[in-house]
Amino acid sequence: MRVITKNPHETEALACRLASRLKGDEIIAFYGDLGAGKTTFTRGIAKYFHTKEDVSSPTYAIAHEYEGDRFKIYHFDMYRITSYEDLESTGFFDYIGKGLIIIEWSENVEQFLPEKIITVDIKKNSDEETQRIIDIEGIEI
């Protein structure tokens, strides 16, 4: 499914649509350049589940945990993760099945991810600064 959003508000609204279809044990793998909107999309998912914490990119922490009204959300940033050993050292595998897992920079670890995941590829529209081209696979919304 491909959607073009015009601004961050529309990107968050699309994330809410996706969130409405989640059970809480999924893995969402984000693809996209720096500033594409991965954290904005995550913020929309977290809003849908009424998290109290502010959503920010976990670049330096590697992972943030948010308490949703139905389940926990684990938000990973794999920018600095380059090997299986690096991924394992984050504790990533211990989180599978315990809540919703959201991964930024998943291209760095995609060969280690389970087969059944949701992918969200976000690209900036070169013609319009605030527009995003978002491709979603692995779930119908």
In short:
The protein is of the alpha/beta class. Helices cover about 25% and strands about 25% of the residues. A 7-stranded mixed β-sheet has the order 1-7-6-2-5-4-3.
Outline the fold blueprint:
Elements: E1 2-5, H1 8-19, E2 27-31, H2 38-48, E3 63-67, E4 72-77, H3 84-89, H4 92-95, E5 100-104, E6 118-124, E7 132-137
Parallel strand pairs: 2-5, 2-6, 4-5
Antiparallel strand pairs: 1-7, 3-4, 6-7
Helix pairs in contact: 1-2
Can you tell me about this structure?
This protein is an alpha/beta fold. 23% of the residues lie in helices and 27% in strands. It is built from 4 helices and 7 strands; from the N terminus they run E-H-E-H-E-E-H-H-E-E-E. The chain has helices spanning 8-19, 38-48, 84-89, 92-95, and strands at 2-5, 27-31, 63-67, 72-77, 100-104, 118-124, 132-137. Strands 1-7-6-2-5-4-3 form a 7-stranded mixed sheet. A hairpin with a 7-residue loop joins strand 6 and strand 7 (132-137). Helix 1 (8-19) packs across helix 2. The protein is globular, with a radius of gyration of 14 Å. The model has no long low-confidence stretch (mean pLDDT 93).
